[in-house]
Amino acid sequence: MASRKTKAQWIADALYEQIATDNRYAVGDKLPTERELVEEFKASRNSIREALKMLAARGVVTVIHGSGIYVQDVHINPPFHMDTPKDPILALKNIYEFRLIYEPEIARLAAIRATDEEIRDIMDCALEIVRLVDENQSFYKKDEEFHSLVTKASHNDVMIALTPVIMSFVVSGILISIASGGVQITNNNAREGHLAVARFIAARDEVGAYSAMRIHLETNLKFISTSNTTGPYTEQDHE
Question: Are 206 and 159 in a shared domain?
Fold first, then answer.
C-alpha cells in the first residue's frame, strides 16, 4: 500500500506546482514569508520549514540567510546539490572560485571552435541581457543561457556534460550577490561582462575571451569578498 504524503510533502508539491506549472513565481522571485505560507496552507511552521528544505534539496529554491528564500530553477536537475551553508558569502566564494578555474578556459575554447551560428547566438544573448538590464527586468534566465551557449560552443563533451552543475550555481550566485547589497555591481557586470566575452569570441580572440570571462567572474568575487552579509537564517530575517 502506498504511503500517505506528510503535510510537508504536500506543501512542497503544491509550491512546486505554483512555480513550475502555474507560473506564480519566476526565477529570482522571493517566496512569501514563513508566516504568510503558514496562513496560506493552514499548516504549522515546522511543516512549512520542512517543505522549504525539500524544495531547496531539489534545487528549486535557494535559501539566502538574512534575506529569504528565492526561486532558483525547476528545469535544471544537477547531478548533485549543495546545501547553502549558514554563511552565504562563504558559499558564494566557493562557487566563484570553482567557476574561475573552469569557465575562462571554456570561453577560450569557444573563441577557437564556435561555429558562426553559435557566435551569433552568443552575441544575441549578450545583447538581450543588455536590454533586460537597461529596462530593469529579470535577466537570470538569459544569464544561464549565455553561459550554456558558451559551454556548448567549446565543443568539449565533458564540459558540456557538466553544464547542469554550472547552471545550478549561476542563479544562486546572482541572488546571493544581490541580497548582499550588490544590485548595481551585479547589473553592471551582467551588462558589460557578457558583452565583452561575446565580442572576444566573435573576434576569435582566445586570449581576450579567456581574460574577459575571468574579469567577469572576478568582479563579483571581489565584491562578495568585502561583503558583510553573514549570519544565520532566522524567521525574522525571512519576514
Answer: yes
- Asked whether 185 and 219 are in contact (CB, 8 A), the reply is yes
Could you read off the pLDDT of 70-82 as tens digits, one per residue? Answer: 887 655 444 444 4
Summarize pLDDT for 4-53 with one digit per residue, the tens: 678 988 998 899 889 888 889 887 888 999 999 999 999 999 999 888 88
Three cell numbers, residue 118: 553559435
Q: Please classify residue 135 by burial: count the beta carbons closer than 10 Å to its beta carbon, then call 0-12 exposed, 13-18 middle and 19+ buried.
A: exposed
Is 224 within 8 Å of 177 (Cβ atoms)? yes
C-alpha cell at 161: 556534460
Q: What are phi and psi of 71, to 5 degrees?
A: -70, 125
According to DSSP, the residues that pair with 63 across neighbouring strands are: 69
Cell, residue 15: 509550491
Look at residues 77, 23, 28 and name the one whose alpha carbon lies nearest to residue 190. Answer: 28
Has this prediction a pTM greater than 0.85? no
Phi first, then psi, for residue 119 (nearest 5°) are: -65, -40
Side-chain-side CA neighbours of 30 within 13 Å: the count stands at 16
User: What domain range is 178 assigned to?
Assistant: 88-225
Nearest to 178 by CA among 207, 146, 136, 215: 136
Q: Please check whether residue 11 is in contact with residue 17, taking contact to mean a CB–CB distance below 8 angstroms.
A: no
Domain boundary pick from 77, 104, 139: 77
For residue 64, give the H/E element and its range: strand 61-64
Q: Helix, strand or coil for residue 20? A: helix
